[in-house]
């Protein structure tokens, strides 16, 4: 997982939105994202085609689908790491309609934490922060349970601890939007569950808009307010996750998980 400072697009005809009651009630920070008629081509290969999507401020959205369906491409377009072929992506601040979303308001976390090996854990979390905001790094290290590890090198941490460091680095910037591209895919099962709980806890506290790309349907049901299934560059299905938080793997959880999994397998 890595965090990057990212840019913005401009752009509106939107897909159905998640019900307001299902959106994070503490969303005071998150940004609204409006995607209209989005196309992405690589030569003659169509990765995304005429895609419309409306993401509410503070919503936790999960994107699932088979490999090659366009999940990571969509995330990279939102992050401005790539440019769309056609269409528009617009951002709107939840704080004030006149307040825009800048590059510093968006952070991305990837599967690889990409920590600088010659810098301490605390110095890695401080990357990109002005000196007067270094306290944010210390506070986030405490929140992710790494306060006592601040002076260590990345090589001295476990894989899960390095992911916690990357999460602290992203959130120390207090982003309006956090994009997560398979950030937990390399972790063992127990560490992955711990990280899911930590991400959910910090999302609830901070209210940022979160978009998670994952192959793990159970993870999507565990974390998201809404799940979208991509297939051949289109939104094939959407699932509202109305399960109460904190979520337990009961019959309702298992039924929804199976519905989403069946939909993925049918693509």
Structure characterization notes:
With 267 residues, this protein is α/β, with parallel strands linked by helices. The protein folds into 2 domains: 31-101 and 176-266, Rossmann fold; 116-174, no CATH class. It has helices at 71-78, 121-126, 134-143, 159-171, 189-206, 217-223, 251-265; strands at 31-42, 45-55, 60-64, 86-93, 106-109, 177-181, 209-213, 226-231, 234-240. The strands form 2 sheets. Strands 5-6-7-3-8-9 form a 6-stranded mixed sheet, sandwiched between helices. The chain has a 3-stranded antiparallel sheet with strand order 2-1-4, covered by helices on one side. α5 links the parallel β6 and β7. The radius of gyration is 18 Å and the shape is globular. Residues 1-27 have low confidence and may be disordered.
CATH class of the largest domain: Alpha Beta
The biggest beta sheet is recorded as:
6 strands, mixed
Assign the CATH topology of the largest domain: Rossmann fold
Oligomer: single chain
> How many structural domains can be distinguished in the coordinates?
2
| Beta-strand proportion | 15-25%
Look at the structure and give the mean pLDDT: 87
Number of helices: 7
Overall form: globular
Order of strands side by side in the largest beta sheet?
5-6-7-3-8-9
CATH homologous superfamily name of the largest domain?
P-loop containing nucleotide triphosphate hydrolases
Keywords:
Aliphatic sulfonates import ATP-binding protein SsuB, alpha/beta, globular, transport, 24% strand, membrane, disordered N terminus, ABC_transporter_ATP-bind, 7 helices, translocase, 267 residues
């Amino acid at each position: 997982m890595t965090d990057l400072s990212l840019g913005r697009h401009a752009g509106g005809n939107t897909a159905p939105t998640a019900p307001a009651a299902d959106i994070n009630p503490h969303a005071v920070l998150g940004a609204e994202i409006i995607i209209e008629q989005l196309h992405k081509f690589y030569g003659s290969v169509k990765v995304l085609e005429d895609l419309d999507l409306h993401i509410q401020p503070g919503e936790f959205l999960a994107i699932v689908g088979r490999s090659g369906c366009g999940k990571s491409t969509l995330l990279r377009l939102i992050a401005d790491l790539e440019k769309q072929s056609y269409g528009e992506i617009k951002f709107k601040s939840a704080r004030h309609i006149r307040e825009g979303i800048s590059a510093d308001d968006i952070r991305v976390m990837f599967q690889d934490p990409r920590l600088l090996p010659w810098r301490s854990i605390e110095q890695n979390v401080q990357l990109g922060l002005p000196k007067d905001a270094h306290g944010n790094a210390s506070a986030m290290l405490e929140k992710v349970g790494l306060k006592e590890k601040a002076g260590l090198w990345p090589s001295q941490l476990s894989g899960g601890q390095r992911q916690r460091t990357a999460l602290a680095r992203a959130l120390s910037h207090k982003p309006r939007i956090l994009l997560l591209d398979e950030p937990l895919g390399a972790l063992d099962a127990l560490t992955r569950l711990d990280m899911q709980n930590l991400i959910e806890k910090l999302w609830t506290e901070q209210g940022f808009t979160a978009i998670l790309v994952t192959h793990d349907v159970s993870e999507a049901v565990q974390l998201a307010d809404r799940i979208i299934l991509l297939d051949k560059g289109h939104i094939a299905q959407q699932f509202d996750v109305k399960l109460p938080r904190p979520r337990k793997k009961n019959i309702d959880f298992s039924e929804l998980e199976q519905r989403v999994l069946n939909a993925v397998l049918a693509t």
